[in-house]
Structures are given as structure tokens and as C-alpha cells.
């Protein structure tokens, strides 16, 4: 079992009345709310927290890409990852990832990921998300009706640029290059493992199986609702003879403390900030026409998978979030027990944990990271050890493998 | 009204073409919402054989995935017109279809005797922007489309669920009707987005001078999608145009005032 620390680089300084005064945290979030002095603090604390998570015992550290928003201020996760390539040791550097359909030409991503792989000594995981509707079709103006096709073409080009031994020409529908010959090339052979973060589009399941990529379901709906999506994935995977849990990952918000009441008191306001302010996305931005495929709409999965577009809905409270499984919180043993059942229930080999959530101050986030990494993570690592046939083919070859170091509970 | 499927380009596209009325042929190109146009088309059909193809993604036409951009769509329509052997006829287009009509007339000016553009998209005025109707709440979309908010068509739009859909119960199919409605709407809106995203300016202004035949510009005075100032922009670029602004109508002016709009068109075409 691998446990990775996920960081969104949240903008923690939104005003108390943000939700009442503004329609969206994404796309048209007012620029006057951005304070560069605070951003200076947040970026540096984010980097410190990522490095700290690695030191404390997580297997990997994850960063991701979002645009024009206060939810996560990393339009370029590669910049953060390059700092981590120097500042961390051993751990996997998981860029979750680069929205490859947005880059013209997409070999820019092949080049930057190759750089990161070389700098880090083969510790890179290459994430290829389509990207959210807000990021891709609004902030970057990509055409929603062609973005998935463009994504598929970009993926082919990048993989080919990493693996072809000779220079080649690429005559695509969206990209034409006479001479493809990237320098540098990735350190990992044949290339860094590819993880595909999905938000619940059913096409992504088949795609990951066909290409043998790792599928990571990233949502804040929690494990209870996440089960519908992961069951959908495993149905497709099993049909193709795949059942290795390491081919699947899930994201979970986690808060660790001394007691349920202490956890609620400490983390409650910050978690509520996250759900009520940072997911406050105007519904018109969360689903541009054509962004979701007809098959996904027909599958009736949107209700389960609409993470964003919460603006206009009721405010949520800590108690509801705990009850629905959006957040796993409690003492180390309570959290361990719950996460163990999440892992087994969803049949996943990668659990991505969000410990810095919403408006948490740096010291509080560090404490949450420390306790999760030292009191929860070691007890979960053993989960798949009794199944030697499950080999993690999706782990970067230069990163540490701590399987078997787990302490049986 | 009869409907038939026309194979274009060796069957790569199957175009659903409606035909109604008798007399001289008239090509009608629908806009971003093509469903409520029955009465308007019937009135045109009183004096014309109205030929109305559906853009792939709308109606029963197929092959949308083969079309990359507006350029491809223009050539698909030229192929379709060849297939139907349609020449020397008037072309009437609304909204997205108006943009397409103007492009077709610019590419093959000799093919079309006269041009009618109703609330046509395709130009961009930075200070008077075409509404981002893909993104506004359903109630605002309804207001931009229809002057009368109490009309059935306006209410139909205003009550459309936007991003939150019910979960379908596979046992009872509960919620399926809403999903079906949404799928239909998602198909047409994503098709429209293919040609209009993110800004509905695909270079038409560079070609509009080639449209030299008589052109009638029809706009609803309260068109919230493409404001009437765009009729002036088209007028300024065209060498022979006249303009008619219809009071008490919005973007769906031909649906809201079918009698008035069809009468103007008939008069323009017969003059």
C-alpha cells in the first residue's frame, strides 16, 4: 500500500463573507481579493509542508494544476515539483498533473516532465488529467467539444516523444510537428508511470485499462459516494482481467487529533471553509457544454460526481461532512480503522491524503501531517502485503518503496 | 413536413433534412435552438419549398465527431447542397445558422440569390458582447432568448436543470426523463459550442464583403444573445442590405413573431 500526501496550495485568506458576496471561487473570482504578500507566505508554507510530509514518512507528495481560482493556487505544479525534486529525498514526486490538452505543442509537457524526472533521479509520476471545466474551457478557453480528443492526441504524442528512439514527425489533427526529438528524455525506462486523475467520466476507466495507466479518482464527495465510481472502474477493469489495487487511487481528507471533540474543535472551521468557500463554484462554470460526454451524462453519474458547482447549495457543517464520509477524522486508531476499510472497500493501492485543508494555519497543518504520517500511515502500509501477486507497476523506479515496513495492527 | 436522410461524402455524414411546402426552393438553417420553429417554417412554406437540414449534433443528423471546426462545417454544407443539387436559391439563417448562411454566401456568392440573416452570430463587438449564453443561469438564458417570459418555450429553458441531475434508479427509471432531456440539450449545446466557443468570431468579418447579393437583416429589439447593434455591424460590412427590427421579440424573434418575420421575408424575396 502506498500513501501519498496531497497538497492543493489553498488560498487561505478569503473574507468571511466571500460566499455571500461572490458567485464563484473559480474563473471570475475577484482579483482584488488576491494579496501577493499572503501568497508569498502560502507558497513557502506549502513547499515546507510538502517537504515535511516526505520527511515524516509519506511515500509520495502530490501537487496539481488549477487556473484562475482561490481553491488551489498552483497554475504550474511543475514549478512546485522542481523545488521538491531538490528539497525532498526518496519520496515520489507526483504531479497530478499537467492538463496536456492545454499545451501547444504538448511536447512542452514531455520536456518539463523529463526535466523533473532527471532532476529528481527518476522519482516522477506523470499525471495526465483532462482538467476541470473551469480550468480548461473557461480559464484557458479550450473548446469543450474537442478537448477530450485533443487530450488523447497529446497523450500519444508525449508517450511517443518519450519512447521513440529516433526523431520522428507527428501529423496530428491538433498538433503538427516536423521534428520531434526532445532533450532531455526521462530517466525512467521507458518513461515515468502515468496516473490519470479522473473526476468520474466513465470513458477514463476504459482508457486507463487499455493503456495500463493508473486511475486516481479525485473528489471531495468522500468514500461513501466514491464507492459508486470506484465500483464502476473495477467493473470495467475486471472485465479486462485487471484486479491489481495498485492500478487505482483515491483521495481522502483526513484530520487526526486526540479525541473526536478536540478534532472537531480544531479542524472544524477550516474544513467548513474548504467546503463552503473553496468549492463555491458557480454552476455555469462547472459543466461547459460538451465537457462531459454523453455517455457520462447517460450513466446518470453526474449527481455523484459533481464536486464543483456547489454555489447556491446549502452550507455544510462538520457533522454532516463526517457522517457522509467526506472527511475521515478522529484519533489515530479511529482514522486508521476507517481508512483501512476505505482502502479495502474501494480496492485501491494508492491513498492520497489531504492534510492541509481549507484555511488551516501552517502549524496546525504540520501537526496533522505529523500525526497522520507517524500514527496512521505505518499501520496502513501493510494492507496488500499478503498478496504478493499485487505488484505496484505504477511506482516511479527512483522512489523509495516502503512496502513491508508496516506494523501490523 | 417530410423528413429524409441524405448521405454526404460517401455516407460519412447522414444529414437529416426536413422539407415542407411547394414552390421555389428556400434553404433554411436553424440556430442554437431549433425545436420551436414549426410555425415559422410553416408560414414560409406557404409560398416556398423550405429545405431545412439539421447540423450534425442536432436532430437526426450524424457525423458530428468528423467535424473539427466551423471550416469543416461550411464544406459539409457545400457538399450537402451539391448532393441536393440546390443552386440559385435564397438562404435564410438564424443565429448559428445565420453565421453559417453568411459564410456560405461568402464562399459561393453565385449560389444564393438572396440572403436573410436573423439574429445572426459570427461578429464580435468588444463593447457590446454576444452573451456567453452557455454559461448564464437558465433564467437569464430564457430572458435573452424570449421577450415573453411566460411563454411555454421560455419556461422550458428557464426550468432546465443545469449541472445537478437526479440519480437514475435503474429499477424504476426514475429520473430518466430528466436525463434524456439533458442529453438532448447537451448534444445541441455542445455542437453549438464547437463552433462558437469561446468567442463566436471565426473570421467572418474578413469575408463578409464577398456577400454582394441583397440581404435582409432581421433582429428582435430585445435580443439578449446577439444585441440589435450587430444588425448594424452586418449592415456596415454588406454592400446591399436592409434591416428590420422587430418590437417585442428577443433572439427567437422568428418563433415569437412568426407572422411578422415570415411576411417580411416573403416580401423581401418577392421584390
What does this molecule look like?
The complex is a heterodimer of chains A (409) and B (271). Chain A is an alpha/beta fold and 409 residues long. Chain A has one domain (2-380): Luciferase-like domain (TIM Barrel, Alpha-Beta Barrel), CATH 3.20.20.30. Chain A is 43% helix and 13% strand. Chain A contains 15 helices and 11 strands. Chain A has helices spanning 18-21, 36-56, 77-87, 107-120, 133-139, 147-163, 202-211, 222-239, 260-278, 283-286, 294-298, 302-305, 318-324, 332-346, 362-380, and strands spanning 2-6, 60-63, 92-95, 124-127, 168-171, 176-180, 194-198, 214-217, 248-256, 327-330, 350-354. In chain A, helix 2 (36-56) packs parallel to helix 15, helix 3 (77-87) runs parallel beside helix 4 (107-120) and helix 7 crosses helix 8. With 271 residues, chain B is of the alpha/beta class. Chain B has 2 domains: 2-131 and 198-270, Rossmann fold (3-Layer(aba) Sandwich); 138-193, no CATH class. Chain B has helices at 38-45, 70-83, 96-107, 138-145, 152-158, 176-196, 229-237, 253-256, 258-270, and strands spanning 2-8, 13-20, 24-29, 48-53, 89-94, 112-118, 215-220, 241-246. Chain B has an 8-stranded mixed β-sheet with strand order 1-2-4-3-5-6-7-8, with helices on both faces. In chain B, a hairpin with a 4-residue loop joins strand 1 (2-8) and strand 2 (13-20).
